[in-house]
Amino acid sequence: xxxxxxxxxxxxxxxxxxxxxxxxxxxxxxxxxxxxxxxxxxxxxxxxxxxxxxxxxxxxxxxxxxxxxxxxxxxxxxxxxxxxxxxxxxxxxxxxxxxxxxxxxxxxxxxxxxxxxxxxxxxxxxxxxxxxxxxxxxxxxxxxxxxxxxxxxxxxxxxxxxxxxxxxxxxxxxxxxxxxxxxxxxxxxxxxxxxxxxxxxxxxxxxxxxxxxxxxxxxxxxxxxxxxxxxxxxxxxxxxxxxxxxxxxxxxxxxxxxxxxxxxxxxxxxxxxxxxxxxxxxxxxxxxxxxxxxxxxxxxxxxxxxxxxxxxxxxxxxxxxxxxxxxxxxxxxxxxxxxxxxxxxxxxxxxxxxxxxxxxxxxxxxxxxxxxxxxxx
Amino acid sequence: xxxxxxxxxxxxxxxxxxxxxxxxxxxxxxxxxxxxxxxxxxxxxxxxxxxxxxxxxxxxxxxxxxxxxxxxxxxxxxxxxxxxxxxxxxxxxxxxxxxxxxxxxxxxxxxxxxxxxxxxxxxxxxxxxxxxxxxxxxxxxxxxxxxxxxxxxxxxxxxxxxxxxxxxxxxxxxxxxxxxxxxxxxxxxxxxxxxxxxxxxxxxxxxxxxxxxxxxxxxxxxxxxxxxxxxxxxxxxxxxxxxxxxxxxxxxxxxxxxxxxxxxxxxxxxxxxxxxxxxxxxxxxxxxxxxxxxxxxxxxxxxxxxxxxxxxxxxxxxxxxxxxxxxxxxxxxxxxxxxxxxxxxxxxxxxxxxxxxxxxxxxxxxxxxxxxxxxxxxxxxxxxxxxxxxxxxxxxxxxxxxxxxxxxxxxxxxxxxxxxxxxxxxxxxxxxxxxxxxxxxxxxxxxxxxxxxxxxxxxxxxxxxxxxxxxxxxxxxxxxxxxxxxxxxxxxxxxxxxxxxxxxxxxxxxxxxxxxxxxxxxxxxxxxxxxxxx
Lengths: 377, 534
Description:
Strand content of chain A: 15-25%
Structural class of chain A: alpha+beta
Radius of gyration of chain B: 23 Å
Number of strands of chain B: 0
Oligomer: heterodimer
Shape of chain B: globular
Shape of chain A: elongated
């Protein structure tokens, strides 16, 4: 008897010990926004209800298993119907559900109201990176995985934020309502930051809305949540939330820097690079931006991504080669790299593709050629 | 009077047949058979084979996920494994297992001599191996097999898919045709061939749940065929159903797919409810509690299944009103499902329980399926779903429902009826090993996945961040153990088919129903004269 009472007490204490899990890595994060806090509370409430119902139902089951067994001489009763009981256990769950639906509805309506925002950021997913653009600010950039390939294949040891680090995080202000406009350039991706309880699909040709208001400065990490092809696991999201003044400062600086870079880009058009410069920069760019599909040796993946090594298009049609890198190829995974890479990088990577792995065309593509191709010449 | 006539002619006709007809000899017996028992056996063996094939793919997945980093397979191959694992398990293991059980048991439970459409029955089985040969062979083509997830969301499955996608679409078509033929056969058989006196409300629950499942199949399989065809024409013939650039809509794919997909989920669980409702009363020695409410609950689950599809896609950006509608409908499903669980517990209450292997699996089903139901209820809450969606929490949820739900129920059914099929008792000790090893390992495998998902690990990734490392080790160990445990199952089956202690007609002390009035093993032709039900 004593053992049974102890067991019962242990079971009953289970629901009360659940909140202890709150901040562990075994549970959902309460996050850093009011909404994420509400979502967390909703999650804990429904979990608690499930645990209590579970204890009652499984408790009754185990009672029967222990006490109503044939080996203990139990004789079977023959009852098999009771309308009253049936109505009761239809109605009670129904009432519990209504009680749950009320807070869920309230939270949902709040989550889906992006009106009166202070700042709008357009988020565009593409295979396998995110692009951020601050509306009316002239600031935009790509955000790529910063983890080294050597860490992934195991030749270097893995650092703390393995797979959850990017070259340029999305910088956002705290205490401001930020509206996200989310879309995609190719397949469906999903932008998810658990600490904000924001997860919204990025759908090509359509724009989704979401919003957040961050309470605490800090670095928040998330990942793409919709299968988007080969490197779905390798397009993380990092948000750097700063106090509004620091954010304004960062935004102004970035704006100036990006304007300067654009001006410098124009000057580059006249520049002549040497073959060695082009080839070494080209290789870096290739490995970063092209090798995921076309492979480091240019052999591609037959049936999925075409080979560049020995490619007829590359060997025979220089203009078409430049065009496909700049503008992508509609209806395939080949992206438009014009806005992703600088003039110099484009020239280098095209030169590299035309001269690496036995593609010995011997010709160099200069930044000026790219600038000319851009203007449609 | 007509009933009487029919019975007599059937009698006279079959007596003549008996003199000439046993099973044919050689491979012809299996190729040309129209016998529901032979076809049922072939379905079950096919399902077991696919279960092992799909399981070995799961082993590849768990081996890669044993540690962070890429060790064994390339991401593209990993995606092919997750896709194929899903397709093979759903269309190759679970659904054919249920059709096999229906073939064997429905005629014997309703007192019919065979399925109503025996030649079509042969077809519906024999096109399946071809469908799977097509689909599995695509793994060896340049570019590999399907790598876009079993849900094949456009445009990943259209403009961005490997060259072999056409094979995938055709194999889906063939599987769909097979399912529709199987479903028609079940409906026609139950509707027309019930023994005299077997009124609708005397129909065994396994037949009821299968009847309802069959209607679901006929309703949604054409939808799957339609959406797969649209993928085919988008990819190869320049249409733009799902391409925004041509005026189409990628989200429409998801609406159509899940309009098939959600009823499909119930197709894979309703027959389980029937199985458990057959097994529990036998080993509780007590009639099923609330038979009629079980029938109504099954029907209302089936009806509701057409109104909840968009809960799979809360994050695609729907209007709030639509999100609320689908949230409420989804929550509502837990009411009839709850009724079923409560009825089972009430059936056990004050019974006289014994714990043979089918009962063990049935009890495990009730508890573990209910856990899957709980996580389903959590997933129904739209705001919380935004956090759970596409994480390991979802993976945990549907594996609780499908592995410890559907597959455990199939195992319970196999152990329950195996003596009737083979005429031998199985090795109880080995079978108990199979049960306990499966029970422990399946929970080590799937329970920690809840934590992974809540902590933020997305599904369908070959590599993950370091904070997920230790739980993934545990999950993989559980996975390997569960995989190995199924080899015990194979041994039990082989031993039981080859011999063993002879089984009595009733097999189990508390057994009830027409199938137990037949000798064990069930003769090649049974109920050539319909029994009279009082």
